[in-house]
Amino acid sequence: MRLLVLLSAIAMPLVAWLSQRGMFGPDQGTVSDRYPTLLVAAGYAFSIWGLIFLLDLAYAAWQATGGRRREPLLGRIALPAALGFALTAAWMPLFSQGLFWLCLVVIFAALACLGWCALLLSRPGTDALAWAALSLHAGWLSLAAFLNLAQAILAYRWLPTGDMLGWSLALFATAAAVLLGLNQRMRGNLAYVAAALWGLGAVYVKQSRSGLDGAEAAAWTALAIALLLGLQTLWLRRRGGGMATPLPGGG
């Protein structure tokens, strides 16, 4: 199982590289531009995948070597981590092909897998590398899944496309509930929150410059969620003494 974690971690940047070269169809940026929504983020935000892939690869190699192969917690999260990585890799060609309904199944399943890993790792005594890698990945997916959902709604016209503000605000509210709920369970997980704040800031930047109806309201909504998430994190960490940041060498 540890080898499967490593192989699936290698698959993510490999598939991303192939995807950017058009091996599966148009790249993600091209497809995304076809479906402008009130939740989409500025293009620079997706550079976070480079850091996510790097940390995931480091974690995957580390957990497969030495005494870590016998560490119970790492063994417990091996299967969901491998599934989360594999689903992340699978999402990219599916998105390039415009299979948005299948993308939704895949990205929410990946979020479930990696969110569960992040929850287990957000405790004293766990290793900082495992915690940072999987928490950052889960934090980004917690927002990206709803950006994907908004584009699916637009692509399939499941809801009115002329006036997107109403259902977009509902998606913002649901995303906020997921972010705040998981962050509460993880007692203020800095890596998880950092990824979410990065994405919310990019949504604000994109929507504040957008000409779509309702974009200004969407921009301020993203900023409000970011502020609320940041304040919640400060409160949780003050109350819990920063227990959600594992120390190097733990576990």
Automatic annotation (TrEMBL):
<keyword id="KW-0472">Membrane</keyword>
<protein>
    <recommendedName>
        <fullName>DUF2339 domain-containing protein</fullName>
    </recommendedName>
</protein>
<keyword id="KW-0812">Transmembrane</keyword>
<feature type="transmembrane region" description="Helical">
    <location>
        <begin position="189"/>
        <end position="205"/>
    </location>
</feature>
<keyword id="KW-1133">Transmembrane helix</keyword>
<feature type="transmembrane region" description="Helical">
    <location>
        <begin position="217"/>
        <end position="236"/>
    </location>
</feature>
<feature type="transmembrane region" description="Helical">
    <location>
        <begin position="98"/>
        <end position="121"/>
    </location>
</feature>
<feature type="transmembrane region" description="Helical">
    <location>
        <begin position="73"/>
        <end position="92"/>
    </location>
</feature>
<feature type="transmembrane region" description="Helical">
    <location>
        <begin position="37"/>
        <end position="61"/>
    </location>
</feature>
<dbReference type="InterPro" id="IPR038330">
    <property type="entry name" value="TspO/MBR-related_sf"/>
</dbReference>
<feature type="transmembrane region" description="Helical">
    <location>
        <begin position="128"/>
        <end position="158"/>
    </location>
</feature>
<feature type="transmembrane region" description="Helical">
    <location>
        <begin position="164"/>
        <end position="182"/>
    </location>
</feature>
